[in-house]
Amino acid sequence: MADINMVPFIDITLILLIIFMVMSPLLVQMQLTVDLPKSNAINTQEDDDVIRIEIQKNGTITVLNKAVSMQNLERELILRLGKANKKTILVEADKNVPIQQVVDVFDIAKKLGAARLGIGVLAKN
User: Fold this and answer.
1) In what order do the strands lie in the sheet with 116-119?
2) Stretch 32-45: mean pLDDT
3) What whole-number distance in Å separates Cα of residue 67 and Cα of residue 75?
4) How far apart are the C-alpha atoms of 81 and 78, rounded to whole Å?
């Protein structure tokens, strides 16, 4: 018999292929880490044009250091925006806040006609 038996070679190749297919998503997932951005840029915009909305870890929302609920946020922003819709709304949220809550704040601000929306970052120490 002069033929080479290819069945064991094909079996080993398919097993290795399956191992690599299973392990590659795990290796990629272990390499991905996300950190919150940090900035050391200087604020060049006047503070009169910025409405700061802070969302704490426990869900407390403050507009310019005044605590409001999510239901009263729209009314508070109407008072702050007024007729001049040239103001910027800056949302600063804790990293443990669900992204849906930040999106809800953006939706309310956009519905009221805010000129620009922004996301605040942590200052570098």
Assistant:
1) 66-68, 61-63, 50-55, 88-93, 116-119
2) 56
3) 13
4) 5
For residue 21, report the phi and psi dihedrals to the nearest 5 degrees.
-65, -35
**Domain coordinates in residue numbering, the chain:** 38-123
Segment 23-45 shows an average pLDDT of 64
CATH code assigned to 38-123 = 3.30.420.270
What pTM was computed for the model?
Answer: 0.58
**CA distances in angstroms from 74 to 24, 48, 56, 70, 103, listed in the order given:** 47, 19, 18, 8, 14
Look at residue 125 and tell me whether its pLDDT is greater than 50.
no
Maximum separation of any 2 CA atoms in the chain, in Å: 93
Mean pLDDT score across all residues of the chain: 80
With a CB cutoff of 8 Å and minimum separation 6, the contacts of 85 are 112, 113, 114, 115
